[in-house]
Amino acid sequence: MAIVRPFKAIRPTRDKANLVASRSYLSYSEKTLKEKLENNPFTFLHIINPDFKDKIKKKGIEKFKLVKNKFNEFIDKKHLIEENKEAFYIYQQKSTTHTFNGIIAATAVSDYLNGYIKKHEHTITAREEMFKEYLDTTGFNADPVLLSYQQDESINAILSKYQEIRAEYEFSTTNKSLHKLWVINNDSDIKLVTDAFKNINNLYIADGHHRSASSALLTESNNSNQNKYFMSYLITEDQLNIINFNRLIKGLNNLSVNEFLQELNSNFQINETSNCNASNKDEIGMYLDGKCFLLTAKKDSYINDCVNKLDPAILTNNILAPILNIIDEKTDNNISFISGNIPISELKTKVDNGEFTVAFILKPIPFSAIKEVADNNRFMPPKSTYIEPKLRSGLTIYSLD
To answer: Measuring CA to CA, how many Å separate 68 from each of 33, 141, 168?
Structure first.
């Protein structure tokens, strides 16, 4: 039984929604971030970067206090307003290739702790602590955790009902995506949504493992009613767009190209090809020394369980750790993770110009495999998946105060 509830979102006024909402600040180049901060006084990026004009940047809790002050300033100036009544929010994001429809809600931390909200990735303790301090100091959460669930006809009916009327927000962004948001504040419709999720046994984290973990950590020190929930965006499993994460590696652990290929030959069938894209089972693409290869794992090179049969684990267990001596992928400076929506030509360029030595191109992991990992309480290697949609920050904000 999934516990979700409506909440009083703090959100932009209708006329400023397109100006406030932003991508994650980490996705902007330094130049673009500077331009947005200098030319858009309403962007949520001002809240996240309150000291962008300061020569000496603050860190940790001191930085978080500045974030809170800027957040309160946006409220005082009426750029952001608090909902009069608790509500659910239907959010639709439509790109040139995908349409995502779901509900923004407050989701129970207890479901996360009890295992009804299932995870498939390890979290890093230091990041959990950092996010927990951030939430505790700023008193708000502006980035929903992406959760998925199995199709439910009653929830679909609610989505369809509201999407026939005018949206509270409707705007396009420069990446050619259309964004719409509807407010569900009718008591009977709120009950329909709440009751429908009670009939859903499990939710699966698609994106936001650290945000979920930090919310759970916060309840240990401050178990207020608001802290018992975290903001989430709930969509059906079939809508998720799962993209692969590729790997770029510096150096070959003092091996020559030929020596490295000889090492690979123990556990892989190696075929030089004109295309680095892998498509078959147990197949990994590789770009090395100006050439494309397809590496097919030999059947006795891995254990056929829910984690170790997946490409990221096959790569880690047979190449990265034993041959290239990359033991901890979360901290090793010799490995970089590049989402699969970056063209392979860019990876090749980074290898050809000497910035990296070899690129590994993986296949997207189907959600059925992700669920199998989560259902067995197992975890994938870091950066195994890049899952869309990626939501805009600042459209709905969950207050922790």
So the answer is: 20, 11, 26
Residue 396 Cα distances to 49, 147, 213, 393, angstroms: 18, 16, 20, 8
Closest CA to 208 of 292, 278, 119, 326: 119
Number of Cβ within 10 Å of residue 347's Cβ equals 23
Helix, coil or strand: residue 216: helix
Question: How many of the other CB atoms lie within 10 Å of CB of 227?
Answer: 18
Query: How many beta carbons lie within 10 A of that of residue 157, not counting itself?
Result: 11
Q: What is the pLDDT of residues 29-50, one digit of tens each?
A: 889 999 999 999 999 999 999 9
CA angle 113, 138, 34 (to 5 degrees): 115
Give dist(CA 64, CA 15) in Å, integer.
Answer: 28
Q: In this predicted model, what pLDDT tens digit does every residue of 350-390 receive, in sequence order? A: 999 999 999 999 999 999 999 999 999 999 887 888 899 99
Residue 389 preceded by cis peptide, ω within 30: yes
DSSP assignment of 47-112 = HH-TTTT-SS---HHHHHHHHHHHHHHHHHTTSEEE-SS-BEEEEEEE-SS-EEEEEEEEEEHHHH
